[in-house]
Design brief:
The complex is a heterodimer. Chain A is of the alpha/beta class. Chain A has 12 helices and 12 strands. Classes of the chains: A alpha/beta, B mainly alpha.
């Protein structure tokens, strides 16, 4: 088997074409995911998080999506250059995905057991009996102890938390090297969120998975990430280890995002929301896409798109990058 | 136990339906102009003759009394005798029903064979040749009158190329052309619905999950989407089948088949009250039974609607 201990996106640029209109959803993003690492991709809705994960899974809608440039390496294979059949063998088996709303992402008329075993039979060539045995093991891995009774249930017979555990069970069933979790807890109750996050973390450790964690919830990201990339209007604006990024954010967008986290210490004060919204991918502003909302914006920001540059990391030799003309400037409230 | 309750509830509903329907039909046929006694007696009959016939038919007593008798008779499954031929209504219907049933079964099977594969193909390969073919087909199926199609089929496959017989109703071969004439239009409806529900299912989120699992297109379409799409299709197909069981007047006429449709048509012409009433109640019962079957099938396909 080929080496699969890294998943690396290089300069990925994607447009959606609809009639005359072109929406440049991803504008050259790069990020690297290592095994046993949780790499969070953070940003507001419409910033390109889901496009990224959809592209890695090879699930972009073919009729309207166009990959302008870029590569996605799983180990040393560029999965974008593989044919459909080879991509299918990677999907689910080497890279698996957990979605936001388990109720909608499970087939309502198929028993959950079959939704798990069909993958085992397809990817690992198990017979029915072996697949059921394996499915029972997976159920206990994801903390569902109901055995055969659960396997024989339909999704609507299970609670929201159980359904998400089933989604996770499906995702980990073939022991994938990487797991993409696209807002896996957003649709759940707060009490369940923590359980599911802990489950994902413990599975990461026991199965040696690398996790691409997609979220807009910074508190969750702060809890579980090793590495964080901040995405804005289809570009990664800042990327660093979690501790580095949270203690030393250089891009104004990252700083403003962190300031918007509700925090017990800031109780009683007004929450700082970022004014405005993410620009439409059909008309991204000239220069730095964030300049329309940035309190520091200068003339250069309105005309020249900032390069991604290294930031001297506070913590030493870790790499920390950001794309801002003014990142050396002092941040004032 | 739940199933038992389901049966009880459905039976109760059936009885209520029959009561309402039989009441409506009883009064409707008496309100519309036309007197069976006049039909039987002919134009030149004297007033005494007509009165005598009315007395024999029992239409001379007050309507309310007739209604009471009719309701009591239904409870005993006795629909009386035809006013025209004197034969028992039950016997007349049962003589004709096997032909109508075979025609309906064959018609719906042909309809399904045409519609479902074409509908799935149209949905899976949208805007392809098959999709356009399906669209043209469903437009034609809904626009072409079945008597015209029946005559064309007869001309083509019984006269010009005599593969099928022109007359008769005693073998399966006699039923192929009429079933085709019937099924053609039904297929158009089923086809459109199959395409629409398949397109809808394929756009749902669980299909994304199925793709993310690395399943083949075939598994995604036929194992995941089709089963969900069939929920709506089964319901509509069942209703179509129910309609066909009531007899296909026009097709029976074109192919000169002695089915229920023609029996009831002549009963109406001749104001044969007991036969009309019996026929309508029979159709209502058949329709309810078909719906019952559809519901069972539906709950089998859709685990969310367990019978309850």
């Amino acid at each position: 088997m080929a080496e699969t201990n890294t998943l690396e996106i290089k300069d990925l640029d994607i447009s959606f074409i609809q009639g005359e209109k072109e929406a440049n959803a991803l504008r050259g993003i790069s990020l690297k995911l290592k095994s046993k690492e949780v790499h969070s991709l953070v940003g507001e809705s419409g910033s390109g998080k889901t496009v990224t994960s959809t592209c890695v899974m090879g699930l972009l809608p073919e009729q309207i999506a166009r990959i302008n440039r870029g590569e996605i390496f799983l180990g040393d294979r560029n999965i974008l250059s593989l044919d459909e059949k080879e991509q299918r063998e990677i999907r689910g088996k080497e890279i698996a995905m957990v979605f936001q709303e388990p109720a909608r992402y499970l087939n309502p008329t198929m028993k959950v057991g079959e939704q798990i075993t069909e993958m085992l039979r397809l990817h690992l060539g198990m017979d029915k009996h072996q697949a059921v045995e394996r499915a029972l093991e997976i159920l206990s891995l994801v903390g569902l102890d109901g055995g055969k009774r659960i396997l024989n249930s339909y999704p609507h017979e299970l609670s929201g938390g159980m359904k998400q555990r089933i989604m996770i069970a499906i995702a980990i069933s073939c022991d994938p090297a990487f797991l993409i979790a696209d807002e896996p807890t957003t649709a759940l109750d707060v009490t369940l969120q923590l359980q599911i996050l802990n489950l994902i973390l413990s599975l990461k450790n026991s199965l040696d998975m690398g996790i691409l964690f997609i979220s807009h919830d910074l508190r969750v990201v702060k809890d579980i990430s090793d590495w964080v990339s901040v995405i804005y209007a289809g570009r990664i604006v800042e990327s660093a280890s979690k501790s580095e990024l949270f203690s030393n954010p250089r891009h104004p967008y990252s700083r403003m995002l962190f300031d918007s986290i509700p925090d017990a210490a800031k109780r009683g004060k007004r929450l700082k929301a970022i004014p405005g919204k993410v620009p439409d991918a059909e008309n991204i502003p000239e220069g730095c896409a964030f300049h329309t909302r940035c309190p520091l914006a200068e003339d250069i920001c309105r005309t020249v798109q900032p390069e991604t540059r290294d930031v001297p990391a506070v913590g030493g030799d870790e790499s920390h990058t950001a794309a801002c003309h003014l990142m050396e400037k002092q941040w004032k409230n | 136990m739940e199933f038992f309750l389901f049966i009880v509830r459905r039976t109760f509903r059936l009885i209520l339906t029959i009561l309402i329907i039989s009441t409506i039909i009883f009064f409707v046929i008496r309100v519309i102009p036309g007197d069976p006694a006049l039909v039987i007696a002919g134009i030149d009959a004297s007033e005494e003759d007509i009165q005598a016939i009315r007395a024999r038919l029992g239409t001379d007593i007050p309507v309310i009394e007739q209604y009471g008798t009719w309701l009591l008779d239904i409870v005993r499954f006795d629909f009386g005798e035809s006013m025209i031929s004197g034969a028992s209504v039950n016997k007349l219907i049962m003589e004709r029903f096997p032909l109508t049933l075979s025609l309906a079964v064959l018609g719906i099977i042909l309809g399904i064979i045409i519609a479902i594969p074409l509908g799935v193909l149209s949905a899976v390969h949208r805007w392809s040749f098959w999709d356009y073919f399906g669209m043209v087909y469903s437009q034609m199926g809904m626009a072409i009158p079945s008597f015209w199609l029946g005559m064309i089929l007869l001309l083509a496959f019984a006269v010009k190329i005599p593969i099928f017989p022109l007359f008769g109703s005693d073998s399966l071969k006699n039923l192929v052309l009429p079933a085709l004439a019937l099924g053609f239009a039904r297929a158009a409806v089923i086809l459109r619905l199959t395409r629409a529900s398949m397109v809808e299912e394929l756009s749902k989120e669980y299909i994304i999950t199925a793709r993310a699992k690395g399943l083949t297109d075939k598994m995604i379409r036929y194992k995941h989407a089709l089963r969900n799409a069939m929920i709506a299709v089964v319901t509509v197909t069942g209703i179509q089948f129910g309609y066909m069981l009531g007899g296909a007047i026009i097709v029976e006429q074109v192919f000169s088949l002695p089915g229920l449709g023609r029996l009831f048509l002549y009963a109406i012409y001749q104001r044969d009250f007991p036969l009309i009433q019996g026929g309508v109640v029979f159709i209502a019962v058949i329709f309810s039974l078909v719906n019952f079957g559809v519901d069972i099938l539906y709950s089998f396909l859709n685990p969310k609607i367990r019978i309850s």
